[in-house]
Amino acid sequence: MIKLNIDGNDIEVEECTTILEAARKANIDIPTLCYLKEINEIGDCRMCIVEVEGRRGFATSCIQKAEEGMIVHTNTPKVVEARKMVLDLILSNHERDCLTCVRNGNCELQKLAQDFGVTDIRYEGAKNKHEVDDKSPSIVRDFGKCVLCRRCVSTCKKVQGIGAIDCAERGFASCISTAENHSLNDVNCTFCGQCIVNCPVGALKEKDNTKEVWEKLKDKETTVIVQTAPAVRVGLGEEFGMPIGTNVARKNGYGIKKIRI
Fold this sequence. Notes:
Layout: E1 2-6, E2 9-13, H1 19-25, E3 49-52, E4 59-60, E5 71-73, H2 77-92, H3 108-115, E6 139-141, H4 151-159, E7 166-168, E8 175-177, H5 194-198, E9 204-206, H6 210-218, H7 230-239
Parallel strand pairs: 1-5
Antiparallel strand pairs: 1-2, 3-4, 3-5, 6-9, 7-8
């Protein structure tokens, strides 16, 4: 075990614990954007920077290990201003159509901008232009909203074991793409949707067929048959307190026989 001080709080943590994990143990908030515990710990977004006494510059708390006697400050004027600058730079290359975005009100970037009071973009300039990839049957990829956090990349590689997407190009031209920039529909993507779950913004979203469904439901000449995927059936069971893994479509006492719309 080692002891350190974060914002005046003496904290004891296990050796090799990061500053971010130590702060969370003490209920001290350090903002993050690219961080996913044990999946994406790369320190790319720089939102989690902190000041460490006796060291020059800022430390990236999600990858910097805590050390014995370390004194950390997470909310100094310099740290706050640096985080606001990071946000400005991210937003300067971001499609800011928040009101019509699928993640409006549930967007991590939007929340950070609100938390830090970012209302004006100081670094307006060139923006990357990419076509929206909507060729797959289930996933829409809009790179204009991507913040290059790489959470989708790490999830695809480490959690799903697929590796359908990765970071391509360099510098300002960097983007998350597939091999030779093919559509997700034309590579080894399995359409599992885990990249969507872990995307902090609206760069990845489910394809919405709600309009078509309502049209068919209103069509008296069409008989609508609904079938849920296995994962949905199991998820429904868990929501109703059934044992994990219960398939609610089976005839085992839990089955749903008829749903009226």
